[in-house]
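Known limitations

Structure tokens in this collection are predictions and should be treated as such. Users comparing against experimental data should check residue numbering before alignment. To illustrate the layout, the record for Geranylgeranyl diphosphate synthase, type I is reproduced below. The input appears on top and the generated tokens appear beneath it.
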Amino acid sequence: MQLLERRRALVEERLVEVIDGIEPETLNAEVRHVVLSGGKRVRPVVTVLACETVGGTAEDAVDFGVGIELVHTASLVVDDIIDRSELRRGTQSAWAEFGHGPAIITSDGLLGEAFALFSTEPEATRVVAESMVELGIGEATELSAKPSNEAEYMTLARRKTGALFRAAAELGAIAADSDPVTVEALGEYAERVGIAFQIRDDVLDAVADAEDLGKPTGHDAALERPSVVQVTDLSPEEANARARAEAQGAIDALERVEVVDQDAKAYLLELAEFVVERER
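Generated tokens:
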């Protein structure tokens, strides 16, 4: 676990460096509020671990990892506006703290900084742009043509959460100069982890305590959002089993990768197990 914390620390240090360079001061303060208020940094750690798994270094991948974390955070800022959620990561959400206009500007600023980091590699820019298209379709679907069954829910989960996870891992593979087959296998691994993560997130919203979770619960039901509990006939226990099946699919995809660093691979395997067992 010490090595994993070193990777997180590397990401955190680079995040602070990027944010320190943001101007003007008002935007800097708003970005700092949303980015440095906590977070598990799962996506950038996936980027780093994917890179190391196939022979790259953490330093090779850290900028791409920071970039995908900024994209993810930008999407959360918008999510909180849509959901009218006043709490994020145990603190005030951007719109609740600064207002709707500044929150939207903060989201735009985060995306600008992210794509500056991806601009050194056209393939990285393409991967992230595609993931954002998928995310946008997912968000639009959630607001309008809501899924009505498990198959449609799974498509939504892939777009809403799986797409950014896929991009995170593919970015790591690209940073290591991997071939397209390896990029795809690592992408499938991460996409399935992301789907499992989303299913578990929906279950926690339905059954967890808000104080333990660090954000309001019951939002999906109150807003009639298409969570796995609301859309399907699955009980929370059955939904958790579905998440575990996706996690197993992720593990199977990872087994197709030609591994250089077994320790990094072991952490990716551990992540696939963690996302379905987490309590927050």
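For this record: The chain has one domain: 2-277. The two ends are 19 Å apart (CA to CA). Please report discrepancies through the issue tracker.
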